């Protein structure tokens, strides 16, 4: 049975009376090479397990079951359970779990369902939760790698470097915690229903320790968020809210220049190291 074959998809879903839900981000793959490539490149092997988010009708799940020892797939839509029971009938190493990825303790789930095996995460993520789902997958600290399909523009935002228009607070958050790379693009016509935008597969490999050393992580991210909240403003104005009135404009300008940066620089030009230097200088100055 071809789980990406459009006639097969229509037949199975029709027999189960399944209707696609736009609000659950249900765009199923219709190109078999995509789940095959994700399974081949996600890093899973017979000595490891995979947590999959959103199996849909199971095309990626079935490919993951071939490369990994065990697969636990978390699906929110109960209407897909009878479909998955049929499509994954020949995959005894797969367990489908009902749940919302954003409300699930992913570390506990990986531990319980994968029996202590090294764990990887994989997903064709529903669009409406792309960034919180990536954050949850990284923050839980349970995965050796996180391989996710997301909108192409999000993939470019995640991997963007300082000074580019795609560079954002989310680029810095992900790159602080993980090595990020785009594996390949997936055109919109590889899905049913066809989404409006193209996708890309992103691989994140969590770092042993953060990319840069900061004396106060909360302040680091507060500065990053403030800098990008008003990205057209110079940093000495934009970053002020991060200090809650504890540094006036001239003190902040002095800190910025003490880090070797131009006093008129905008936050979007700062590398992770620049933001770390600024945070560490601020921690020193504030005592
Ligand atoms: N993996 C399938 C594929 O590639 O064809 C389906 C991917 S589809 C883009 C996203 C899947 O995530 C759907 O099955 C949807 O029901 C499920 N989903 C949506 N929100 C979810 C959530 N909060 N937690 C878990 N699964 C969710």
Describe this structure in words.
This protein has twelve helices and nine strands. The chain has 287 residues and is of the alpha/beta class. Helix 3 (59-67) links the parallel strand 2 and strand 3. The N and C termini lie far apart (65 Å). S-adenosylmethionine binds next to strand 1, helix 3 and strand 3. The site of S-adenosylmethionine has 23 residues, from strand 1, helix 3 and strand 3.
Spell out the blueprint of helices and strands.
Blueprint: H1 6-15, E1 28-29, H2 33-41, E2 49-53, H3 59-67, E3 70-75, H4 81-87, E4 94-98, H5 106-113, E5 119-124, H6 130-139, E6 145-151, H7 152-159, H8 169-177, E7 178-186, E8 191-192, E9 199-206, H9 217-229, H10 235-238, H11 249-258, H12 272-286
Parallel strand pairs: 2-3, 2-5, 3-4, 5-6
Antiparallel strand pairs: 1-8, 6-9, 7-9
The structure holds S-adenosylmethionine (SAM).
Number of discrete helical segments? 12
The best one-word shape is elongated
Main sheet: strand order: 4-3-2-5-6-9-7
Estimate the helix proportion, in percent. Answer: 25-40%
Q: Give the radius of gyration.
A: 22 Å
Low-confidence stretches: none
How are helices and strands ordered from N to C?
HEHEHEHEHEHEHHEEEHHHH
Count of extended strands: 9
The proportion of residues in beta strands is 15-25%
Helix and strand content put the structural class at alpha/beta
C-alpha termini separation: 65 Å
Mean pLDDT: 96
């Amino acid at each position: 049975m071809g789980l990406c074959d459009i006639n097969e998809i229509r037949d199975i879903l029709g027999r189960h009376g399944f209707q696609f839900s736009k609000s659950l981000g249900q765009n199923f793959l219709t190109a078999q090479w995509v789940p095959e490539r994700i399974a081949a490149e996600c890093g899973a092997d017979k000595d490891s397990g995979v947590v999959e988010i959103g199996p849909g009708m199971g095309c990626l799940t079935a490919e993951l079951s071939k490369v990994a020892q065990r697969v636990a797939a978390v699906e929110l839509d109960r209407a897909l359970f009878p479909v998955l029971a049929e499509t994954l009938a020949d995959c005894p190493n797969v367990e489908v779990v009902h749940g919302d990825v954003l409300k699930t303790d992913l570390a506990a789930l990986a531990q319980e369902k994968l029996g202590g095996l090294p764990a990887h995460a994989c997903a064709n993520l529903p669009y409406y939760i792309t960034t919180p789902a990536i954050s949850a997958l990284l923050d839980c600290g349970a995965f050796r790698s996180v391989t996710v399909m997301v909108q192409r523009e999000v993939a470019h935002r995640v991997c963007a470097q300082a000074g580019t228009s795609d560079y954002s607070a989310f680029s810095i958050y992900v790159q602080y915690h993980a090595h990020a790379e785009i594996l390949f693009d997936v055109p919109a016509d590889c899905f049913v229903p066809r989404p409006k935008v193209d996708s890309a597969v992103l691989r994140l490999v969590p770092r042993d320790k953060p990319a840069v050393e900061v004396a106060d992580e909360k302040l680091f991210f507060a500065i990053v968020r403030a800098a990008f909240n008003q990205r057209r403003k110079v940093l000495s104005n934009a970053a002020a809210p991060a200090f809650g009135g504890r540094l006036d404009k001239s003190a902040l300008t002095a800190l910025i220049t003490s880090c070797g940066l131009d006093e008129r620089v905008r936050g979007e030009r700062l590398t992770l190291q620049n933001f770390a230097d600024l945070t560490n200088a601020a921690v020193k100055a504030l005592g």
